From TrEMBL:
Family indicated by similarity: Belongs to the helicase family. PriA subfamily.
Domain Helicase C-terminal, first and last residues per copy: 466-624
Name of the protein in question: Replication restart protein PriA
Record key words, sorted: ATP-binding, DNA replication, DNA-binding, Helicase, Hydrolase, Isomerase, Metal-binding, Nucleotide-binding, Primosome, Zinc
Enzyme nomenclature, EC number: 5.6.2.4
Keyword Isomerase among record annotations: yes
Organism of origin: Marinobacter lutaoensis
Gene3D superfamilies per record: P-loop containing nucleotide triphosphate hydrolases, PriA, 3(prime) DNA-binding domain
Domain of life: Bacteria
Function summary: Initiates the restart of stalled replication forks, which reloads the replicative helicase on sites other than the origin of replication. Recognizes and binds to abandoned replication forks and remodels them to uncover a helicase loading site. Promotes assembly of the primosome at these replication forks.
Keyword Transferase: no
Amino acid sequence: MPRTARIALNRPLRRLFDYRIPEDLTLEPGQRVRVPFGHQTLTGLVVDTDTPPPDGIELRSIERALEPWPVLPTETFHLLNWASRYYQHPLGECLFMALPPALRRGQPAKEKHESYWQPAPDGEGQALPANAHRQQALLAWLQEQPAPASTTSIRAAGFTTSQLKSLADKQRIRPAAAPAFAGIADEPELTPTLTPAQSAAAEQLPTPAEGFNTALLYGVTGSGKTELYIHHLKTHLPKDRQALVLVPEINLTPQTVARFRQYFGDRIGVWHSALNDAERLAVWLRVRRGEPLILVGTRSAALLPFTSLATVIVDEEHDGSYKQGDGFRYSGRDLAVYRARLNRCPAILGSATPSLESYHNAKQGRYRLIRLEQRAQNTTPPSLHLLDIRSRPLEGGLSRPAIQAIRRTLENGEQALVFVNRRGYAPVMMCFDCGYVEECPRCDTRLTYHRQDRAMRCHHCNYQAAARDHCPSCQSENFKPVGQGTERAEDTLAETFPDYPVVRVDRDSTQRKGSIQGILQRVNSGHPCILVGTQMLAKGHDFPNVTLVVVINADGGLFSTDFRAPERLMQTLLQVSGRAGRAQKPGRVLIQTCHSDAALLQQLCQHDYLTIADQLLAERQTGGFPPFRHMAILRAEADTMEQSLTLLNTVKADASFPSELTVWGPLPALIARKADRHRAQLVFLSDRRSCLNQALSQLCTMLELRKPSTRLRWSIDVDPIETG
Ligand SMILES: Nc1ncnc2c1ncn2[C@@H]1O[C@H](COP(=O)(O)OP(=O)(O)OP(=O)(O)O)[C@@H](O)[C@H]1O
Ligand SMILES: [Zn+2]
């Protein structure tokens, strides 16, 4: 009897395709094959090999297997099957997401040749120009490496191939043979020495010997969670097993990877969006081969083909970047925990500001709560103060007391950090004669003024136009920026403190590759300076000489309709506050607000995060929101709002939802028009995950059958973090 295989293709189709297996071929799930599809030949992934052959249909035959082994090992394959059902996303796309781009395209699962480099002996080669800082840094880095470094790892450490080439041209480095990968032979013997508080936490962390166990490590800012992770892995990770360490953003915090490398050498693999295709393939293959790597990576590292995972760590587990915002909308954190369960190994979720979801799990006893409430180097936490700015004169958004505090900090030889929640010069351009406000022609939003290149930009659709100096409506010249952006704060600070450098950190100032490293180096030199920037500055940085943090305006999140806004506001304020006073000197935080009586801000100054989180959880429970109920959103977007709403209204009317399912809407999204697409949504809430999931699959089937036009799109977001 002819054998049949079920194949997944990398297509947004909620179905699989049956093919005949040639006589001489043995296949197993997770293998790559080439199959005919229409007039093309495509790469497919085997999902099932004992599918009953359909009656009366002549199936086409699989052409060949691309390799005799499954590129997706069993456990990764299970993970993706589960995720496809949980997130209601087509299996084909989920499976292909877990392959590096080269393998998706059908290229062979082999590495391209890698070159390795080592420093030339002292005294050889030409001197480096005094201004070639990056070349010097690269040379120093190579000298620190225990073995020759590959081009891939050199690039992963933040250097460029042209810096490498310059050093080679000057004969300061020379090619080397690839170091034999003897497991972890090169791993340095170092283990960090823990503080007493860290040791107490370390003893409670679940070890691989305990099997599956999830811990929530609540470690205040500056408590040294990274040291704790390193110590834990050094002590408990078997030498022949793999570990996954998820981090929100590698490029922003190169020090974290550097610290891991210091203790694990070449056992560290890195995975993030800045790797090129060849680098991705190389790391992916090392993981698939089962090399005992400690893989430090961003969200999609949760999909890597680990074969002997023994520990999972998710740092800054509350971070929004773990949730994929389009397509396969998975949470890297949640998949990482699911993997730990499949592998019967521990998962450690760490944060100074845990997500309410994880904290709720800890309170329910599903996660082990471990508290680390002392800073590693400075036992006094930063002190927080509210500065009411109602009817106070402001200079470029800064109040007099804030300016005085910055001055004192600089005069003491310390650094100040000014947090502004928007990039650009000002979020609004307004005519003070006729009231005209410049809006995005494609979105329901205002355009941000960027003074550096005199442009008006939409931060939602990237629309861009030249800035004008008079009102396009009444021609008045009284056309002015309103509100604060990072560029404006930078200007004001540079004018007020002409003797000190002002360093701006936001998406615009860090676009060039390697620029963040340069900025961090400047700050870490410790000289007095003012750092001004967005959320980027709040994430995991360790600036020892920052003793003052000023938050220009804390009010953005106070009155939002998004039920997650208070949680997010608390997290941002505490994370940015946590950058102050991390070394020996105490830290101070000034939070400017027009609502110093707001309960949330008051609590922030008086209580620890978990006390506030208890309060926020109580509010979520009263409102019937996650984590007390499960949530999903069905979104539609079309050329008109009517089309979007009609689609959602019809499916809502046609579906037979159980009474325990709460359905809200359809309603236009908070920003109803984005890039000329009109967006509406239906929100679902249920006490039971299975009830929600069944309703969603029913919806998917209906929507598939309805085949809305390509101009009318829909998508499902399970456990959404953006609910507007
Ligand atoms: N045991 C230790 N001995 C000496 N210094 C330590 C120790 N543990 C941590 N540190 C130092 O304390 C500082 C804070 O550590 P780290 O950045 O890991 O904190 P964190 O918990 O990740 O903070 P955040 O959540 O704010 O990012 C770092 O400079 C680190 O080198
Ligand atoms: Zn726009």
